[in-house]
Amino acid sequence: MKKRIYLTLSDGSIWPGNGDIEAPMEGEVVFTTASCGYPQTLTDPSYNGQIIVFAFPPIGIYGVDKENLEGRRVWARAALMTCLDETEEGRFESLSCWMADNGRPLVSDIDTRQLILKIRECGSMMGRIDVEPHLPEIKELPHTLVAEVSCSEREICGEGELTVALMDYGVKENIVRGMVRRGCRVIRFPHNTAAAEVLASGADGILLSNGPGDPAVLDFEAGEIAKMLGAKPILGVCLGNQLLARACGAKTKKLPFGHRGANQPVVECATGRGLLTSQNHQYAVDGDTLAGTDLEVAYSHLGDGTVEGLRHRRFDALSVQFHPEASPGPEDASYIFDNFVIRMQAAKGR
């Protein structure tokens, strides 16, 4: 049965709603503008540590299709929405039952419009969901977010003539599925695997995955990427883009409220081609720190000029801040995975 629940932000503001909760939940309060794909959003490991506010008014319309999730559990700390539509159809479980099974609060009847406007004005901030409407102190997110979502041992998916070494910083399952569909054998490595072990696997290319949290705390991971530069073609996605930048000596920065949604406009710098992309990131590469790194901007955000992709001038390494696999979102950028396969084939032919 629904009861009164409160979101308290770190600035002391209180936002009442309705739902059910087993225990208080804390996280960074962020919003997404995607109108569909809420099960994929909630299971995306990149949302580990975050409380998601859905901007689209009704959520839960089509239940939960468990066969197409992006993670093996709900990683978001909680979900907030204007209204919850409990439609349940056939094999699709209701959103509220599914969230309850995962022990995650689902809060509806909250004024998400004003809450999102506040985040846009003040920036993302920490929050707590509880049955009590006050909390004087809310802890910051831990530095272990990537370790929590990464696989703990090597895993292999698919078969094919090409082998991809996937560095799992919190990879979305549709990235794995996408590479398997393209005829690749995918070896999934834990986030803290040494470069020597990755290169000894016989992989034809290295894919740096998405993941949660601040890339500045992942010095080991960035250091191992630096050791792999030039050995094999590299493709970085989201956090992988930021780690490639840091591996080459650039820095990253935290955006005020980040980019989350399925309609983020991006331009490919070399061609002027415009793309609608799926995005989920709070941090971005600081373009002012690229001098002397051998990196150039390959993609740029048409809204705020944020660096949305990088290309290495000397080595075969490309990265994007957005998600070519979408899920949810448009598939404008799926050609980036196709090109990665072509790059691996060319390198293997040499």
TrEMBL record:
Coiled coil regions in record: none
UniProt cross-references to InterPro entries, sorted A to Z: Anth_synth/Amidotransfase (IPR050472), CarbamoylP_synth_ssu (IPR006274), CarbamoylP_synth_ssu_N (IPR002474), CarbP_synth_ssu_N_sf (IPR036480), Class_I_gatase-like (IPR029062), CPSase_GATase1 (IPR035686), GATASE (IPR017926)
EC numbers on record: 6.3.5.5
Pfam families registered for this protein in UniProt: CPSase_sm_chain, GATase
Database matches in PROSITE patterns: GATASE_TYPE_1
The keyword Metal-binding appears for this protein: no
Entry keywords, A to Z: Amino-acid biosynthesis, Arginine biosynthesis, ATP-binding, Glutamine amidotransferase, Ligase, Nucleotide-binding, Pyrimidine biosynthesis
Binding-site residues, L-glutamine: S46, G211, G213, L239, Q242, N280, Y283
HAMAP family cross-referenced by the UniProt entry: CPSase_S_chain (MF_01209)
Biological role stated in the UniProt entry: Small subunit of the glutamine-dependent carbamoyl phosphate synthetase (CPSase). CPSase catalyzes the formation of carbamoyl phosphate from the ammonia moiety of glutamine, carbonate, and phosphate donated by ATP, constituting the first step of 2 biosynthetic pathways, one leading to arginine and/or urea and the other to pyrimidine nucleotides. The small subunit (glutamine amidotransferase) binds and cleaves glutamine to supply the large subunit with the substrate ammonia.
Designated name of the protein: Carbamoyl phosphate synthase small chain
Gene: carA
